[in-house]
Amino acid sequence: MSSQTPIVVVKDICKTFKIRGRPPVHALKNVTNHVDKGEVLVVIGPSGSGKSTFLRALNGLEPIDSGSIVIDGVELTSPKTNLNRLRQEVGMVFQHFNLFEHKTALENITMPQMVVLKRSRGEANEVGRRLLDRVGIGDKEDSYPSELSGGQQQRVAIARSLAMTPKVMLFDEVTSALDPETVGGVLDLMKELAADGTTMVVVTHEMGFAREAADRVTFMDFGEIIEEGTPEGVFDNPQHERTQLFLSQIL
Amino acid sequence: MDWILDFYNYRVVAQYLPEFARGLGSTAWISLLALAMSLVIGTIAAIMRMSPNPLLWRIAAGYVQAIRSTPLLIQIYLIYFTLPALPLLDRRLDELEGGIIALGLNAGAYMSEIIRAGIESISRGQVEGAMSVGMTYPQRMRYVVLPQAFARVAPPLLGQTAVLIKDSALVSFIGVFELFGAGLVILNERLMPNEAFLTVAACYLAIYTVMLSVTGYAQRRLGGAAA
What is the value of ipTM here, to two decimals? Predict the structure, then answer.
């Protein structure tokens, strides 16, 4: 799969959080990475390692200080780039779902299609219903987010992203806020997406998922990429001391 | 039962029903237009007030302070008499226009503070959710932030609307005929203050009751299940 031009190319990105009265935090230090078409990249690492910042930089939710990010040939950091236009192509699923609270499950999926992609209501409804079926909650289209469980809300959020037919999907600890019994279902859905050839970047603490679904695993700590490789390589034969320590703590 | 006729002669009130109907209609119409104006101005001022651009937020802050620190009656006179004296308009405002503009500008300042509180109460996650599907700033505001913000602050907006409706009585000072004016007719022609102002008060109460049910409906429409 890595023979073609990668969809995402990240080169030397740096990000420092400056909070007054405290030492600056270097969230990203010269991070370089890439994601090929159809590839599933899983980013793991301890809290505060910069993995979420890395993910959020990929659709410009977190502006970076230096370096470059190119999404399917478009330079994200260039001032000429229309970030909103680019975000249509980069789907994102959040830890806390971020569904539109005032819209039903179906409306959450149709509204962005009509507003951003200018699809007709009929077409948007068709896409919306098909996707709700696909994520396994076709019977919940009229429910508001507050009436759905965390797992169901996350399925709607995934469907909302898919409706935009993005070139790459970002998953930011999407099961961390879920009840334990709903985690498995959401992870299974993500595995299905991966198997269908969706290009995905997944930040997660679910090592089982990483091992099973990842094409490549990146371990980050202190804002740097410490180690990366195949799931087998990283999990069964970690080379770096910090990777070994991290894995021994969580596995 | 004679004391009732002494205290409140509904037969006289019945004679003046056309005046009260005209006054009620006028007050409702003035209030509705001023309300619409105040919500538009309030929303714009709230968004300007939150802008990182110092020029924009200073203009909005100055407007709110100027309105809050001066009496409405003076604002009405200023809009009606003083504004047309500036070389901006090539004609005078009529009483109705002047009254509506003054009321709308006045309520807009108070509305903007309420609307700003509503916008600020919407979580960052809602905005990021909208950004992640590629919505532009105006789209995020229109489809995600403002509907939820308005649903959330509907009760204080309703309270401010009640103030606006009551304040609309002040435009009778520049000669607009409305509900209060209708009461003044009975007072002047019959010297019957009870009949005049109990009736006027009841009419204001009626407007408020209608408004309550409309607000409940709007809140459910905007806010989804949460509201």
Answer: 0.93
